[in-house]
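Thread: quick sanity check before group meeting

JM: Hey all, I'm pulling together slides for Thursday and realized we never actually wrote out the predicted structure for the chain we discussed last week. Dropping the sequence here so it's in one place. If anyone has concerns about the input, flag it before I start.
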Amino acid sequence: MPFCPKCLYEYQPGIDVCPDCNEKLVAEMPVESPVDEIDEDVGDWVPLARLTSHEYAEMVLTRLRDMQIPSVIISGAGYFGTAGLSGEGGGAYTIAVPEEYVEEADTQGEFLLGEIWVKSRIEDEE
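JM (edit): ok, ran it. Output follows.
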């Protein structure tokens, strides 16, 4: 799978340039990638909010990772995230966290983005 060396997203084969960063994709994830630090033994991943701004998604991701909350951005442009999650819909940036971190991550997202986060929440479909 190709990766963006700047934003660290993983893309489907056949995509050569990151649509978010306009960077040429590389064959392997850079060694210093924060994605490497995500614990693969965490529970099921839950999509929390679908944001339309890459900048907002990056703000939330940075905050969550600073708080040691495993998290990924799933880009509608073709990113396949940890635990097999995949993007939906063009241009959307979905924040996902392991199930056991949902409440704290939601609190942090709302703290950072307020009404934008509230309106972007993905309702539980179960």
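AS: nice. Helices lie at 54-66, 102-113, 115-120. The longest strand covers residues 45-51.
JM: adding both to the slides.
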